[in-house]
């Protein structure tokens, strides 16, 4: 493509992006998706995911979808409250109104307090419809390139060391190169688990998530011990309590392993506080925490300015949410890592499209919007669909 074409296309993109759209309808439908095998962390054991699909319709019949899973322990939202937010205040804020993508996103953010995953579902749906209307992949409207990809990881559930070793071996044989492990509360048991995983999958890199489990001094001892054990660590996520910024800074200063904030960062103001305190090396962005793409991009902008890199993660969410997270991740230069394996846990991973994964490497499939088929209200994710994607 010549330079002139690039200029012309950018111009067209800006013009169309600034064009207002009108939302004629906001709808929501619920699904229950069984997992292939239980997902076990120190906090909970999940066998099925309750989620809600948000759908918007623009004038002319253009549709867009987003989704949100029940995550009572993290965002405080259940499938009932997500549905109530979508069909109540969020629908009232949007239905019958017009505006640019930024105006509609701002209206969603201001429609009610909290409800970040319900807002994310609707805000993603609006972005999907916006991009479909412009016949462009969302990633390109956000400034990225459809052909780019990122290395994904695979979570190994918290089980006995032998079971975790088997799962780690299976993952690596299946092409995974990065394993994520959510640690328990017994550090001696964790060391046995990690040793078993490393023995079973010697070439894999590890990401550890302590989910606020330690005190700062304890975290320093534990992580120093992991390094002495020779564990191939990419990062350690949220070693101490979310509000303990000073503790995070102490851990970051004391260990070589990059420290990532997750529960400590929900919005750009949190991100700014963390980077100003030199508290972490990395930030974990999740759409269910930020309330959608615009809040997520704002965190990534803070990170880029501070020279901090980001990972895009997710809750145990369905494919629509994960595809939106992948578009976000590939679009922003400060986002260099993804932790987006939830669809691999679903017995029936619907709808088709969005992205493909090969040897741990995730790429978007292209097509307008998120590039996904529409998920109808009548689809039952308990029905197996085969593996013909
Ligand atoms: Mg985490």
Structural descriptors:
8-stranded parallel β-sheet; TIM Barrel; 4-stranded antiparallel β-sheet; disordered N terminus; 389 residues; Mandelate_racemase_N_dom; disordered C terminus; binds magnesium ion; 15 strands; alpha/beta; globular; 13 helices; Enolase-like, domain 1; 39% helix
Evaluate the radius of gyration.
21 Å
Fill in the CATH topology of the largest domain.
TIM Barrel
CATH C-level name of the largest domain:
Alpha Beta
**Distance between the first and last residues' Cα:** 31 Å
The number of distinct structural domains comes to: 2
State which percent range the strand residues make up: 15-25%
Q: What does the main sheet amount to?
A: 8 strands, parallel
Shape: globular
Number of strands: 15
The portion of residues assigned to helices is 25-40%
Low-confidence parts lasting 5 or more residues at pLDDT below 50? 1-5, 385-389
**CATH superfamily descriptor of the largest domain:** Enolase-like C-terminal domain
Ions, cofactors and other ligands present here are: magnesium ion
- Topology as a string of helices (H) and strands (E): HEEEHEHHHEEHEHEHEHEHEHHEHEEE
- Treating each run of at least 4 consecutive H or I residues as one helix, how many helices? 13
Overall description:
By secondary structure, this protein is of the alpha/beta class. It has two domains: about 5-135, Enolase-like, N-terminal domain (Enolase-like, domain 1, 2-Layer Sandwich), CATH 3.30.390; about 140-365, Alpha-Beta Barrel (TIM Barrel), CATH 3.20.20.120. The protein is about 40% helix and about 20% strand. It has helices spanning about 5-15, 80-95, 100-110, 115-135, 140, 160-175, 185-200, 215-230, 245-255, 270-275, 285-290, 295-305, 320-330, and strands at about 20-40, 45-60, 65-70, 100, 150, 155, 180, 205-210, 235, 260, 280-285, 310, 335-340, 355-360, 360-365. The strands form three sheets. Strands 6-7-8-9-10-11-12-13 form an eight-stranded parallel sheet. Strands 3-2-1-4 form a four-stranded antiparallel sheet. Strands 5-15-14 form a three-stranded antiparallel sheet, with helices on one face. Helix 8 (about 215-230) links the parallel strand 8 (about 205-210) and strand 9 (about 235). The longest helix is centred in the N-terminal third of the chain and has 18 residues, at about 115-135. The chain is globular. The two termini are about 30 Å apart. The protein binds magnesium ion. Magnesium ion binds near residues 209, 237, 238, 262 and 284. Its EC number is 5.1.1.-. Pfam families: MR_MLE_C, MR_MLE_N. InterPro entries: Dipeptide_epimerase, Enolase-like_C_sf, Enolase-like_N, Enolase_C-like, Mandelate_racemase_C, Mandelate_racemase_N_dom. Belongs to the mandelate racemase/muconate lactonizing enzyme family. It comes from Brachybacterium fresconis.
């Amino acid at each position: 493509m010549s330079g002139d074409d690039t200029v012309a296309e950018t111009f067209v993109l800006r013009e169309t992006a600034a064009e207002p759209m009108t939302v004629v309808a906001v709808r929501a439908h619920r699904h229950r998706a069984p997992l292939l095998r239980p997902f076990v962390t120190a906090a909970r054991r999940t066998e099925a995911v309750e989620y809600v699909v948000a759908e918007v319709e623009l004038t002319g019949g253009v549709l867009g979808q987003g989704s949100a899973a029940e995550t009572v322990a993290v965002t405080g939202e259940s499938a009932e409250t997500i549905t109530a937010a979508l069909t109540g205040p969020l629908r009232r804020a949007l239905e019958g109104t017009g505006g640019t993508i930024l105006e509609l996103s701002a209206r969603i953010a201001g429609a009610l307090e909290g409800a970040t995953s319900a807002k994310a579902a609707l805000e993603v749906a609006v972005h999907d419809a916006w991009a479909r209307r412009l016949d462009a992949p969302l990633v390109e409207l956000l400034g990225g390139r459809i052909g780019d990809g990122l290395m994904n990881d695979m979570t190994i559930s918290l089980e006995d060391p032998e079971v975790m070793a088997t799962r780690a071996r299976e993952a690596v044989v299946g092409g995974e190169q990065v394993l994520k492990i959510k640690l328990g509360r017994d550090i001696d048991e964790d060391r046995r688990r990690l040793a078993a995983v490393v023995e079973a999958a010697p070439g894999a890199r590890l990401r550890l998530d302590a989910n606020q489990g330690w005190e700062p001094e304890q975290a320093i001892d534990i992580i120093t011990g992991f390094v002495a054990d020779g564990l191939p660590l990419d990062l350690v996520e949220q070693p101490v309590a979310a509000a303990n910024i000073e503790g995070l800074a102490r851990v970051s200063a004391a260990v070589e392993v990059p420290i990532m904030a997750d529960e400590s960062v929900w919005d750009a103001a949190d991100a700014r506080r963390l980077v100003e305190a030199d508290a972490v090396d990395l930030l974990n962005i999740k759409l269910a925490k930020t309330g959608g793409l615009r809040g997520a991009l704002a965190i990534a902008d803070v990170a880029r300015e501070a020279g901090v890199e980001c990972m895009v993660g997710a809750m145990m969410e369905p494919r629509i949410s994960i595809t939106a997270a992948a578009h976000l991740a590939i679009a922003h230069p400060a986002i260099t890592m993804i932790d987006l394996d939830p669809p691999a846990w679903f017995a029936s991973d619907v709808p088709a499209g969005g992205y493909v994964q090969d040897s741990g490497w995730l790429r978007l499939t292209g097509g307008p919007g998120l590039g996904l088929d529409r998920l109808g209200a009548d689809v039952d994710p308990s029905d197996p669909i085969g593996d013909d994607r």
